[in-house]
Amino acid sequence: MNVKRHIPNLLTLGNLFSGTVASIFAVQGDYILAAFLVSLGIFFDFFDGFAARLLNVSGELGKQLDSLADMVTSGVVPGIIMYKLLIEANIVNFSIPTYVPFLGLLLTLGACYRLANFNIDTRQSDSFIGLPTPAMSLFIVSLPLIQEYSKITVAKALIENTYFLLGTTLALTYVMNAEIILFSLKFKEYSIKNNVVKYVFLILSVVMIVSLHYLSIPLIIVVYLVLSLMNNKTIRK
Predict the structure, then answer these.
(1) Is 3-183 assigned to CATH 1.20.120?
(2) Is-contact 76 18, C-beta < 8 A?
(3) Dist CA 94 CA 86 (whole Å)
(4) Most CB atoms closer than 10 Å: which of 10, 136, 194, 212?
(5) Domain residue ranges in the chain
């Protein structure tokens, strides 16, 4: 039996296991453990592809398995968390009908559509079209952590605002499936001239992480989108 061809799939299953357990903690309202397990799942998600390329064992099974695992970690879990946040916002504000929190599950539907489309889209080898689901998931799982630990009251107030949460849900669902080219952080070579956008993004990310902690996560994703749009405009010119 060729053991090495199973290593990437075992890492993918680690992603699935992390996401499954994260969904349990998300339902229970333990957002810290849910966020940790989602991050762990995304770590596995990154290294399963890396291992497949390193061991030269890429295949159709791994591709399909990867999307199924991502559907849980970066699809189901953020949908549950947004659902819970909308319920909590409604308790505070009493401003929405009781069925509205289910709109948070649009994130899950949007992630499912993106992942299915990604598997048949041959254009996304060197860049992404639409926001990758792990980025969306990190954005969402960071919100309750910001609410709990951030000292910036404006940020905490926004996360308790029903309309901000609904707007975020709709925006992320759209951006995941929009025909927007987003740069990949894969480096073919390391010259500054050909990778200036990537280096700027990495430097800004480090600065924000050091200074803003949890609040940096959604801001980094917003910066990623803005830099990608600016980069696209530059390339077209």
Answers:
(1) yes
(2) no
(3) 11
(4) 136
(5) 3-183
Which of 50, 63, 174, 38 lies closest to 116, judged by CA?
63
Q: What is the pLDDT of residue 92?
A: 60
Tokens of 21: 């357990």
Tokens matching residue 190: 């390391």
Could you give the CA distance from residue 61 to residue 215 in angstroms, rounded to a whole number?
37
- Torsional class of 78: left (φ above 0), alpha (ψ -120 to 50), beta (otherwise): alpha
Q: How many CA atoms lie within 13 A of 89 on its CB side?
A: 27
pTM for the whole thing? Answer: 0.93
Could you tell me where the beta strands, DSSP code E, fall in the chain? 127-129, 181-183
Distance of CA 228 to CAs 69, 172, 224, Å?
Answer: 27, 16, 6
pLDDT digit string, tens, across residues 179-209: 999 998 877 778 888 889 999 999 999 999 9
Please tell me the predicted confidence (pLDDT) of residue 56.
77
Inter-helix orientation angle 106-120/133-149, to 10°? 150
Q: Where are the beta strands (DSSP E) in 50-178?
A: 127-129
